Protein 1
Amino acid sequence: MSGRKAPGKARAGARTRLTALAPGARFPTGLRVGPLRDGAFRGRLHDARTAVSVGRLAGCALVTCFVTGLVSHYLQQPPGWAVDALPSRPVWGYRVTQGLHVACGIAAIPLVLAKLWTVYPRLFAWPPLRSVAHALERLSIAVLVAVTLLQLATGLLNTAQWYPWPWNFRPAHWALAWVMVGALALHIAVKAPVIAAHWGRRSPGTLRLPAADGPDRRAFLATVGAAVGAVTLTTAGQSFTPLKDLDVLAPRHPDHGPQHLPVNRTAAAAGISPARLAGYRLSVRGPRPYELSLEQLRALPQHSVVLPVACVEGWSENAHWSGVRIRDLLDHAGAPRGATLRVVSLQKGGAYSVMEMGAHYARDPLTLLALRLNGAPLSLDHGFPARIIAPNRPGVLQTKWVATLEVLT
């Protein structure tokens, strides 16, 4: 009998537990263990001032990614009304915006992780849902965190051209970007009073916590800054060539590849072989259609330009190109001045085997049907016998192995 509780005491204990867990009652302190207990998280690194300091940097990186991503999307796949309106200047425009897009995306990874570390104790706040408004706020935060982490992770894998998922990356990345920026805007609106109270070092709402509560905030922010600097310095060289000697973590080096220029899709991957190119002739379709052999193309007036190839994965590099101006080929075909050009490649399949070029690009004096790269004939991987090179264009639109130029009126 000594190991059994008296019936009266057992019933009283059950009533205590039921009363404590009844709706609206306080969760018993004795049952709140681990991260749910009062005072489970302490230290100045989890205070609002630190969260705001890291959060504003992470927010700037994400907004920059979103804006430059818009530029990349509309240059890669412009709506019909914009095809003839997109500018061909500055010649380095896409190189800068896409390099910034990828660099900010990589820099955002340690910033977002640091931001999450400063606020994660609040995930265990009790009660988890205090009202309908509080439930909606937490739901918006869950969406923001999930979408941001997925966006950054898949974007990083895209720079290495590794796609271990069943969906198409580009439309998914585009859709997630809008969800992410919408959730971020909502989060900023909800947290605006807290952000304003802790924005500056001497803001009225800033709490002055004792230094003994944990590692110094400045040391933490310096560590985060060092992490951002490290990943930036070791990856940005793939597009910002003064840093190319430090380019040890990026999947591409701007000087590595055939003819000292990287390639994303090889001739073998595109189904191009020397046998397929035998008897090559360029077909130009317009009011006065004609065809040219490679020898005839080489006999036309040749022009030289220095233009970058800038790829969506973030790498870019300047190169010397020579060939025939596209506008000269169009004039010979009797193309109207404002005509759009359709370019068809010999490659088998692929999302960009057919490409349209607006009049600003087609008529630009720097836009070439290139036959030579860095002083030598194009290699097979770089588009032999002829490829497009144009200013301020994504690399996927610099079509290789060109078979047909078609004037669209």
Note: Confidence is low (pLDDT under 50) at residues 1-5, 7-25, 209-214.
Protein 2
Amino acid sequence: MILLVIVASILIAAITIIQFNKQSKEYHEQRLERKENHLILNLNYFLSESKAERLDSIPQNKINEITDIHEIPFELYSLQGNLLKSSISESKNNFEKIISPEILTFFQKENKTRYVKDSEDSRYSKSSYNLIYNNKTPIGIIHMPYYIDDSLSRNELKSFLMNLGIVYINMLLIAFVFAYFLSNYITQSLTRISQRIKTTKLNEENAKIDIEKTPMEVSILIDSYNSMIDDLEESAIKLAKSERETAWREMAKQVAHEIKNPLTPMRLTIQSFEKNFNPEDNKNKEKIRGFSKSLIEQIDTMSSIATAFSDFANMPEQKRELLNVVKVVQIALDIFDKDYVEYTIENDEILTLFDRTQLIRVVTNLLNNAIQAIPEDRDPMILVSIHSNKKNVVINIQDNGNGISEENKTKIFEPSFTTKSSGMGLGLSMIQSIMNAYNGSITFKTKENQGTTFKVTFPKKLK
């Protein structure tokens, strides 16, 4: 818009100057021709009244009188080009006494038109030559030097251009203001769309943008965004359903696999007992005791699988109670009662809002993993430490086990992933779910064959 105003002002100024020069040129050409015709008529009238047949017979005072009447100087030449009479004083006359051959040749060819040329004298802009007749017979040549004075017209042009400039400067200011508010009006809608797009998430409900009070061009974009939100919600529902189905399908496979493991030895034990059982054998009590013990061990394995699956399926409800983290962790450590577990604390009391059962479950799972990660040929050493900062409670559990390999680092929190021969691999995934529910996090640092440190962080109770 601003560029359009600037280009328009330049074009109008250029056209105005061109038109002025054209009109000025036409005006002076017509003025020169009118004055020349009047001069010739006046001279012809004098020659007719005085019955003079030669130009040099015209008195000088008559020449000066005609010049004063028409306000233009002139000179009279013979047909041979010699100067006869002049209204210009000799001190100011810079013209030659003889007409140039070019002009004489022009009139000698019986050319009855005027001969006009641009003057080389800086005081004049044009020189006009024409024939003077007496009874239709040419008797001489008249020369009129013409000075173009455009000072008045140029002042008028300058004044016009200044007024035009003022008008266009005001138009530019108006265009700037209008463009500013228009761009703000448009960009406000674009900014709203940009902010909404930044906050758009697949797994959350996304609000649509109100299409009212928006420019027509932007409303098309908003309509497209709202349509995208509808498609996104539909895709999110389908994706969530697909993820749930996939997760439960994988979990069902894992549970079925884990249950089959103890069922096979149970089947073999029962078949062996049935085949070798002898009612009259005196060792039947010992055989029944061994048989029962084997079945109980396999049943306990199946029970632990069911418990792990149940714990994972029942995601923690966000029950919050005021706890002293130091005492709750001590309770979890007492369950293990291991001499190689070292416990260090920063303060005797660190308060938080957490579920006691869930916090004990987090610590016991991490301790159990730490114990199982230590190989049998190595002296176990586990360090549990608790400290706090301005906002969070931090629990570190460090072991000197085998560590986590590079390829398993990205899988460690996935459900059903495990490096152990038994278990369902739900412990760390369950801990991560608990920490997410309480706005916390779980991370780890590890070195192969040197050990792993798990770091649990969650908000503490601010005083």
Note: Residues 267 and 295 are 9 Å apart (CA to CA).
Protein 3
Amino acid sequence: MYVELKNINKTYGDYKASDNINFSIEKGKLIGLLGPSGSGKTTILRMIAGLETPDSGDIIIDGEIVNNIPASKRGIGFVFQNYALFRYMTVYDNIAFGLKVQKADKKYIDDKVNELMKLTALEGLGKRYPSQLSGGQRQRVAFARALAPNPHLLLLDEPFAAIDAKVRQELRSWLKEMIEKLGITSIFVTHDQDEAIEVADEIIITNKGRIEQKGSPVNVYQNPETSFVASFFGQPSTIDDYMSFHSFEDVSGIEKAIIRPEFVKVSKKDEVQRFKSSASEGVIESIAFRGANIELKIKVNDTHIIAKRGLDEKEVHVGEKVDIFIYRLFVTKGNEVRLLENKSLVDDSLVI
């Protein structure tokens, strides 16, 4: 493994920012540290960078314990959320800054900066200042500056947070392609689920200073290992009595159930329904257009469910009674989680 964190703990006063953190990262992987605000993800990043020191445990990079090695000697590139560019330096000089600190040869600096401006689509902008650039261009300068000293590891702290949605989407794809081309091990912090799922090779979920789960985006999304992870993704509805919905196994000791919108089928009363006998009646309380679909808030069995309908389906209205079929749901006991399938999916006797 190229990066390893072993039994890392970090406390600020009474706040436990890192609680026995353990994980490892293969060389060349792009890893997303994903979690809510205050979950400890930025603290992890800063300790790897050498900007913070763990109270206990070891940080290992390429087989070497780096706890006592200064940040400037760790061979790490760091991209900050707010770009942190030097306002009175041109694009060229911002990118060249780390190389000049290393006292690199002038020709090497010139070649390297021009190579990075081409890589980051900044050609022709070398004489401009940060104030003359768009947000997306400024972030590309920050990437190029971090890459200039040839770091072995690239760390990014919410790199797209200050950029508008359209440019953020473009930069996600660009970053993934660039990292794959360079083959540099990279870790980025984000609280944006879509961003982590789209960009990362693997996701590490953080919560209250702990690691909840690590795995591929697909595996973490589809197979949550804890109650927190199951309820973190998407727009889940949490209900206390899942047995009020039809055709689910009765599991003892269950505390709550989690239903994601994609687990729900909403049908108008006059529509053909294969699983009508296992559906529940609900009333639409609100409707929101989300671009690719219609989001519905539906009151059913004294609780509220978030569901979606396609734009090509018949229109529904606030106050309309509809049928709700739940394909599957997660049930939790403490921090344990289990997926339950609706029995009518496999039992023909429950289908009409």
Note: The helical segments are 41-49, 91-101, 106-119, 135-147, 165-182, 193-199, 217-222, 227-232.
Protein 4
Amino acid sequence: MSGKAMLNHAAEVVADRSAAYGAPSKAMELLAKRWSITLGHPVTPAQAVLCLIDLKLTRLAHDPRHQDSILDIAGYAAVLHEVTR
């Protein structure tokens, strides 16, 4: 799959998740609120997205060819763009 095709697929996945779970910015806001309670200090939606990207990077360190993790990072990058606008 070309890089462009992968980015198009990531956009489709983000759209599918948005249809299933609501706007990504709202989902990250809710996740940040939950993690704030769990961690005992404020977490921003952007920080929540960055942590999810870190999770995928950790998995890629184990297997840099894992296409799902690469795809997820592209999708999370788009979500990060949305929550920081």
Note: Helices lie at 3-21, 24-39, 45-62, 67-83.
